[in-house]
Specification:
about 120 residues; mainly alpha; 4 helices; flat
């Protein structure tokens, strides 16, 4: 475990920098409060903060139930199912192209750096 003094010094620096950003107008006060709530306490004890967006958001039973609902576009009998599938395929295609492009670009950079 890291030295408590180092942890406290780092947390103090982070808080000071965040307060500077608030004073400079880069962070709104509610943003600062949210970030500060997520930081560990001075003695290194982890924060108990849980972002409301992620608390209980994933419920497999609810998702399975929604998949059976004919009013959901993902249901094959929904009139908008074709549009939903088309949009999903486009998202997968975009992700594949991005991944291929990133891999290709990374390979080119690595090859160029090997020559120097």
């Amino acid at each position: 475990m890291p030295d408590t003094a180092q942890v406290n010094r780092s947390l103090s620096t982070i808080r000071t920098e965040l307060e500077y950003l608030r004073d400079a107008g880069v962070l709104a006060p509610p943003q600062l409060q949210s970030i500060m709530a997520q930081l560990p306490q001075q003695n290194g004890v982890p924060s108990t903060y849980v972002d409301p967006k992620y608390s209980g958001a994933f419920n497999p039973a609810q998702i399975a139930q929604q998949a059976q609902d004919p009013n959901q576009p993902a249901h094959p009998q929904n009139p908008k199912h074709h549009e939903w599938v088309k949009g999903l395929a486009a998202k997968f295609g975009n992700a594949a192209m991005f991944g291929a492009g990133a891999t290709f670009g990374g390979d080119m950079v690595n090859d160029a750096l090997k020559q120097f």
